[in-house]
Amino acid sequence: MLIDLFIGRKYPWIFCRPNLDLVTLILAFTMILNRLIPTSGLSAITSVQVLRSFLFFLLFYVLLIMVARRQSSRDPTSIFFDPTKAYDPVYSAIRLEQAAFFIDAANNDTEPQIPGGPRQPKFCLGIATIARKGARYFQATVGTFLEGLSEEERAEIHLILFIAHTDPSQHPAYAEPWLYKLADQVLLYNASEVDVDRIRSLETDDAKIAGREKALFDYTYLLKACANIDTPYVIMLEDDLVALDGWYHRTQTALSSAEEQTREMGAANWLYLRLFYTEELFGWNAEEWLTYLLFSILVVCLVVCVLLVSRKYNAYARSVLPNMTILLLSGIFTPLLIGLFFAMGRVTVLPRPNGVHQMSKFGCCSQAFVFPKSRIPELVGLYTSKRIGYVDTLTEEYANARNEIRWAVSPSLVQHVGRKSSKGAHNDVSSHVKIKSKADLTVVEKLWNFEFEMNDAEALRAEHDAVKERAGS
């Protein structure tokens, strides 16, 4: 009979629901418990029957844990998180391979791949890069953002690739043909505009370790270059990213949604749209522990009330819900289920819905921002006045002080694949080492979007092709 119950022959509705909620689990357990305990003994449950109930729940609970482990293995906020698999570049590996073919084709092409004729770009897309010891991400980043774009989509992008070295030959991409065939503009330091000697002093290994001054200067320099392009939006990217196939049309859709939602809020403008974030920061926040506790107590009280009311007004319920059963269900089994709910992780049980949402807290980091051009002057002024600091930290402090609207698109459109820091060799970690624990990771390596790797390459390509077909018709 137990086998029949677990495979759903007796109660198929228990296991066919896509999301088992707490009330469903309680009702399911009550009905199954009724099958296990003879009705003749319900008026006085013996110790054997109580033990039987515990054993059955234990088996039921173990099954739930097995399901939870599978569902939450890629949730960094869950105790079932499995770093040995969650950090594997599944979809990223496909995109990197596609980017490699794209870059190879560009290197072998005799003509530039920049669209000709009159253009009115919608985006200035800027990527600043410096050489990293033992790692090359830049060309793959460029490749994933350009691979698969239609001619019309590429024509709507003004691509600026910034080699942020006083001696640009130090960067391996500087001598490679693809750089000049793919970029609308290869940006270098202009000695008439910047203090080259000062920048050179920031390129030493000791200065790179801090990295707060030169990185901010480079970001500002590129941001100003993009501001000189007549586009309504500026996309600022780091040089160690992977973009999903179709990022362009999804970004356009996200921007339309952000603009519409901003108008509905009665606001005049917004600060940025975030294309990347990590789920690492979206767990059960310690400062909200009282809220979690109160809701847990409320659920237990609700279960007690439901069981007592059912027993009072339903004759059948009176026969299957003696005091001991109610105590077990509400006092032991329900708290255990609540504990499992929290153990599965917030990202699993309360995932962010797809679309564009405000992200004024826990948004990290500065990998991929879209700024309205109208906000560029004040951001340039902010970074220039601060001179030293991290882009994301300064931007968030500024936004918090002014209560700025900040949007993020879910799911993430890009992945951060940089395993080697640009701030010095002491942070270098081999990207080929199998990750065994989060404790083995640097801060840089933890900047990972776990959902991104679950993308279906064929489905995304089909979606993108459909969008291009509609645009061309």
Automatic annotation (TrEMBL):
One of its GO terms (biological process) is GPI anchor biosynthetic process. CDD domains: PGAP4-like_fungal. It comes from the Eukaryota. The keyword Transmembrane applies. GO terms for molecular function: glycosyltransferase activity. GO terms for cellular component: Golgi membrane. The chain crosses the membrane at residues 20-37, 49-68, 289-309, 321-343. The keyword Membrane applies. InterPro entries: PGAP4. Keywords: Membrane, Transmembrane, Transmembrane helix. This is Integral membrane protein. It comes from Penicillium egyptiacum.
